[in-house]
């Protein structure tokens, strides 16, 4: 094969790879607000058609036949249909932007394996398939939800083989393991496990029409496995700010607070990449006025330039602080880094140095609309960070209901 043919073959393979990768990356389900533009990030030659009307090219939710759900077809050069996608259309909504500092207590659906260790020179977990990041949910047919329950099951085995059900990468698997007896006559599997997480963050908004809330703008990740914590339940409690550590270049600041004796104000149902979601049960303790509602902006309505974040850092009072939106990633649906923002308010800069840990979830408003929430700070520049689109938060919340 001469050089020209090799180059041609490699080029063809690269083109095929681009199309296969692009088609594979298109989700099987999409949620749109009424009138929102449908943008799946497709490459040249890929057409999006209404499955019930193949002559109609779909560009916005208005092109669909109803206001609930519809199926569209992904076509290659309008010749070969390669994939169907369900599009759910939801109505525009209003929320009350909050900015309250709150405490979160989350409990896992099982016990999370965060480490492995030998027991008297023995590795009981060896060749069982269980690794860090796996979630143990059942032992000998008994559901396990806490570390205490797992310990009890292992002790009662007295060294007899255990049947353990665990979840790895979303799949339920079963294995057998035999605990090793220690010098103190206890039985151990050599697994370090954890059954919950707790921390301080900021609640983004309350939606009066559903009674639901969103917080953080990102999920809670296990410090050891760096994976989202899979939760079975959780609570939201009030917190008292004990200290504000100012952020500096190379060293992120922090809101320190205590959730001890905090008053429960809500329930948590979902821990996702786009935030924590649940329902609020005590509006008065968070000083929520349901009359102060803002429409949730579509991303096409967001502009670079001035905006405000809302947060309570002093005296339990929510305040608006000026920021600048410097970059908008309008086609981004894959993560919570939708916008780059910069704190410009001198009062907030003097107080925190910019964006600090614990401010994640602080709502952002522009032109009397809720547009998103703070998610991350740039360690190299604490005045600058990322924010997630409000429409992404609402769409995720709809799936959490």
Report on this structure.
The chain has helices spanning 3-25, 147-157, 346-352, 390-400; strands at residues 29-33, 46-50, 53-57, 69-76, 80-90, 94-97, 101-116, 135-139, 142-143, 161-168, 171-178, 180-181, 187-188, 191-207, 212-215, 231-238, 240-245, 254-258, 264-272, 275-280, 294-296, 305-314, 317-328, 339-343, 363-366, 369-378, 381-389. The protein is mainly beta. It folds into three domains: 23-90, no CATH class; 118-189, Pdz3 Domain (Roll); 198-400, Trypsin-like serine proteases (Thrombin, subunit H). The chain has an 18-stranded mixed beta sheet that branches. The model has no long low-confidence stretch (mean pLDDT 85).
Provide the residue-averaged pLDDT.
Answer: 85
- CATH architecture label name of the largest domain: Beta Barrel
Sheet with the most strands? Answer: 18 strands, mixed
Number of self-contained structural domains: 3
Low-confidence stretches: none
CATH class of the largest domain: Mainly Beta
Total strands:
27
Q: How many helical elements? A: 4
Shape: globular
The fraction of residues in strands falls at over 45%
Fraction of residues in H or I helices: 10-25%
Produce the secondary structure layout.
Layout: H1 3-25, E1 29-33, E2 46-50, E3 53-57, E4 69-76, E5 80-90, E6 94-97, E7 101-116, E8 135-139, E9 142-143, H2 147-157, E10 161-168, E11 171-178, E12 180-181, E13 187-188, E14 191-207, E15 212-215, E16 231-238, E17 240-245, E18 254-258, E19 264-272, E20 275-280, E21 294-296, E22 305-314, E23 317-328, E24 339-343, H3 346-352, E25 363-366, E26 369-378, E27 381-389, H4 390-400
Parallel strand pairs: 1-5, 21-26
Antiparallel strand pairs: 2-3, 2-4, 4-5, 6-14, 6-21, 7-8, 7-14, 7-16, 8-9, 8-10, 10-11, 12-13, 14-15, 15-20, 16-19, 17-18, 19-20, 22-23, 22-25, 23-24, 24-27, 25-26, 26-27
């Amino acid at each position: 094969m001469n050089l020209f043919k090799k180059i041609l073959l490699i080029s063809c393979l690269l083109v095929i790879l681009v199309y296969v990768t692009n088609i594979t990356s298109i989700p099987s389900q999409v949620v749109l607000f009424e009138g929102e533009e449908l943008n799946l990030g497709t490459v040249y030659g890929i057409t999006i058609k209404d499955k019930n009307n193949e002559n109609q090219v779909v560009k916005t939710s208005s092109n669909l036949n109803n206001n609930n759900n519809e199926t569209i077809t992904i076509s290659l050069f309008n010749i070969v249909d390669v994939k169907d996608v369900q599009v759910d259309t939801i109505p525009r909504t209003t929320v009350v932007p909050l900015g309250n500092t709150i405490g979160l207590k989350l409990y896992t659906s099982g016990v999370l394996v965060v480490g492995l260790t030998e027991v008297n020179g023995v590795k009981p977990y060896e060749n069982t398939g269980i690794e860090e990041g796996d979630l143990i949910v059942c032992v000998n047919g008994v559901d396990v939800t806490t570390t205490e329950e797992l310990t009890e099951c292992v002790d009662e085995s007295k060294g007899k083989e255990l049947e353990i059900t665990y979840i790895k990468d979303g799949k339920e698997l079963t294995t057998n393991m035999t605990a090793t007896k220690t010098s103190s006559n206890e039985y151990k599997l050599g697994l370090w496990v954890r059954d919950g997480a707790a921390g301080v963050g900021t609640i983004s908004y309350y939606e009066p029409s559903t009674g639901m809330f969103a917080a953080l703008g990102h999920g809670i990740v296990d410090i050891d496995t760096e994976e989202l914590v899979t939760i079975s339940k959780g609570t939201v409690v009030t917190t008292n700010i004990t200290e504000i550590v100012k952020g500096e270049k190379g060293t992120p600041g922090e809101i320190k607070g205590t959730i001890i004796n905090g008053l429960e104000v809500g329930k948590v149902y979902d821990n996702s990449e786009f935030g924590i979601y649940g329902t609020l049960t005590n509006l008065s303790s968070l000083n929520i006025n349901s009359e102060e509602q803002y429409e949730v902006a579509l991303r096409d309505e967001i502009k670079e330039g001035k905006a405000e974040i809302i947060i309570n850092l002093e005296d339990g009072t929510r305040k608006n602080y000026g920021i600048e939106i410097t970059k908008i990633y309008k086609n981004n649906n894959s993560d919570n880094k939708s916008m780059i923002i910069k704190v410009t308010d001198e009062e907030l800069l003097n107080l925190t140095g910019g964006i600090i840990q614990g401010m994640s979830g602080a709502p952002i408003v522009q032109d009397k609309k809720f547009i998103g929430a703070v998610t991350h700070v740039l360690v190299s520049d604490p005045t600058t960070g990322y924010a997630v689109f409000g429409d992404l938060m609402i769409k995720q919340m709809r799936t959490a209901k």
